[in-house]
Amino acid sequence: MKLLVLGGTKNLGRHVVEAALASGHDVTLFNRDQTNPDLFPGVRRLVGERSAPDVLATGEWDGVIDMSGFLVRDVSLSASLLRDRCGFYTYMSSIAVYASKITPGMTEYAELLPWPDGAPEDHFTMDLYGPSKVRCESLLTATFGDRAAAVRSGFVVGPYNPDFGNWGWALAHDLPMECAARPDQPIQYIDARDLAAFLLHLTVEGLCGPYNAVGPTHTMTDLANAWRSAVPKPPPVDWHPAEDRFHLPHNGTNDGTFQLTNTRALTAGLHLRPDADSARDYIAWVQNGNVPPEPPH
Predict the structure, then answer these.
(1) How far apart are CA 267 and CA 264, in angstroms?
(2) What is the pLDDT of residues 192-233, one digit of tens each?
(3) Paired strand residues for 29
(4) How far is Cα 133 from Cα 264, in angstroms, rounded to an integer?
(5) Is the N end or the C end of the chain the one with fewer CB atoms within 10 Å?
(6) What ranges make up the beta strands (E) of the chain?
(7) This protein's superkingdom (predicted)?
């Protein structure tokens, strides 16, 4: 099918394009052509800004995968242009959309964050990250109806993506793994390749609605042990490092965010590889000379 990817040359978006090309889809990229411009040399590119997406009015696509929609105004502009130019629209959202941070077992239909009175739709701050994702999801549903999906994820791990608390780098260099989170902290994540495959699957099959695209809930201790099992002589875990790379409160006020129910995504076709496999591949990627990028936020 003809696919348009908004973004597509860094982190998760790179995996999405690789998966689409491997499946034989005809891919067009829309981005600023500034990040990794030499990637995918045979792929058609539309160059522009999300704030001025007029070039999107020059084509038609069976599906759109939006990897770069942060500002509400920008997503609204592209949605209005693509409403009658695409068959299906899949939006990369976030687990930050939920109003509660402490409730375990939330499904996709749990209460979402409200939009703050007077908040700007054309300016990004971290305080508006969750509400902006909610508002973008809402406007896309209003625009496309059952031709839209919203994929909510949190920590994304894998080649090209930020290191998971420095664990990949540490294991690749026989250094202690750092974890300032408490040992019984609940945590969920997903391998970037599994998430990319799911985004593509929803778009191709036209499966609408919101999805919690997350792995199972572990404790930090159990997950750390799974990663340590990927190397022959695992180093210890430093539970009191000088730098806190996870920034998770110790008092449980964010525990519910990482105990989401992923049943709807699994039923729709989300496949999750074992944690040790993700760790092994990431360690190998680092050992091959790659340097993990900084976290986006």
Answers:
(1) 5
(2) 999 999 999 999 999 999 999 999 999 999 999 999 999 999
(3) 5, 45
(4) 19
(5) C
(6) 2-6, 26-31, 44-47, 61-66, 86-92, 148-152, 155-157, 177-178, 186-187, 189-191, 209-212, 218-219, 237-238
(7) Bacteria
